[in-house]
Amino acid sequence: MKILVVSQYFWPEEFRINDLVAGLTERGHQVTVVTGLPNYPGGRLFAGYSVFGPLRQRYGGAEVVRIPLIPRGSSLAYLAVNYISFAVAATLLAPLRCSGDYDAIFVFEPSPVTVAIPALALKWRSGAPLLFWVQDMWPHSLSATGAVRNRTLLAAVDVLVRWIYRGCDLVLAQSRAFIPLLRKQRVAAEKIVYFPNSVEEHYHPVTQVPDDVKALLPTGFVVMFAGNIGVAQDFATVLAAAQRLRDQRDIHWVIVGDGSRRDWLRQQVQQRGLEEQVHLPGRYPVERMSDFFAAAQVLLVTLKKDPVLAATIPSKVQSYMACGKAVVAALDGEGARIVAESGCGFASAAEDAAALAENVLRARNMPPQELALMGRRGRDYCRANFDRQAQLDHLEQLLRKVATQRGGSSGRKS
């Protein structure tokens, strides 16, 4: 099939869509990706990129068409301009740069929802069916993170979102808990498909920790978080739990990653006198994360207390489980359910620092073989529920279904 993928974020930025595109090209599909200039999460264009490009590249077997945008910077104002600049520029430029005939258009939406606007323009021009993969529920996630509190603006965004959904042929939900929220936004039941994140092949158990990773990390009982350091991840609770356990000198909290709250987090660590307990080694490629996870005794996932965040499955949960490590979670809803259902670790309520500290201490006091058993349970659960090849099979079925329903060029062979 000939597939057009629309995503504001793409390689060399580190998102699940990179692996999905690689999987589709591995299976012989012709894939074109419309995306922006890479600037996530630091807010500045990556080295080697400018507003002048490169505007066309290759990623594996896929063609990458880059749209100029204003980088996200470090403030909400810049972030809003970043979202708008991509939506406007891609709506104007993408139909000109991707004027071919496509079997389907696939949209990846971890935020912003405005990525669908150029995708709809491409659909109207080409007549190709549109599949929209929802990772963040707008406008709910805007209020959940505190990014937008104005009720009039949130209501306007809700109108925009409903309009977008009406233009989609299928709406794919990364969490089952998204489905009732989508129904409230008047998405027809027959248009909604549960399509969770799968796990890239570079997430796997590592038995021997590389020397360069050992040199970066403290010795002792390591509780490791990896990923975006943002508002939704609720590092205030992590710091409060670390303070409760500060007398347990062998427990170390290692936060690998970057994001909008990294400077705040570093300042808080210093102000609270937690430099010996909380460590911020920085951001490393996702391909190295399995090596880092191998150096930890347990892996940490946290989210703020909010109904919409509770409906989300943080993608790091699947990554942790695929690496066969025990998980300590401080979150509500779907993420907590998966940890409990799989038996891969301990889950406590979001924003409950006392319970998080208790679970970390509980894990520290367990025999290593019991933690290893939890890790194996998580890996088995991940294989059964989030397998990469099974998800690619499912996606191919969906793409062929909508292409056949629309007719046109659906007779192509993959």
Question: How would you describe what is shown here?
Answer:
The structure is a single chain. This protein has helices spanning 16-26, 76-97, 116-126, 140-144, 151-166, 178-184, 211-216, 235-244, 262-271, 289-294, 307-311, 315-322, 333-342, 353-364, 368-385, 388-406, and strands at residues 2-6, 30-36, 56-59, 62-67, 104-109, 130-134, 170-173, 192-194, 221-228, 251-258, 278-282, 298-302, 327-330, 345-348. It has two domains: 2-198 and 387-406, Glycogen Phosphorylase B (Rossmann fold, 3-Layer(aba) Sandwich); 211-385, Rossmann fold, CATH 3.40.50. It has 414 residues and is α/β, with parallel strands linked by helices. The strands form two sheets. Strands 3-4-2-1-5-6-7-8 form an eight-stranded mixed sheet, with helices on both faces. Strands 11-10-9-12-13-14 form a six-stranded parallel sheet, with helices on both faces. Mean pLDDT is 93; it is low at 408-414. The N and C termini lie close together (5 Å).
Poorly predicted spans: 408-414
Q: What is the CATH H-level superfamily of the largest domain?
A: Glycogen Phosphorylase B
Supply the CATH class of the largest domain: Alpha Beta
SSE order in H/E notation?
Answer: EHEEEHEHEHHEHEHEHEHEHEHHEHEHHH
Number of structural units classed as domains:
2
Strand percentage lies at: 15-25%
How would you state the average pLDDT, rounded?
Answer: 93
Distinctive features:
Rossmann fold, alpha/beta, disordered C terminus, 8-stranded mixed beta sheet, 6-stranded parallel beta sheet, 2 domains, globular, 414 residues, 16 helices
In short:
This protein is of the alpha/beta class.
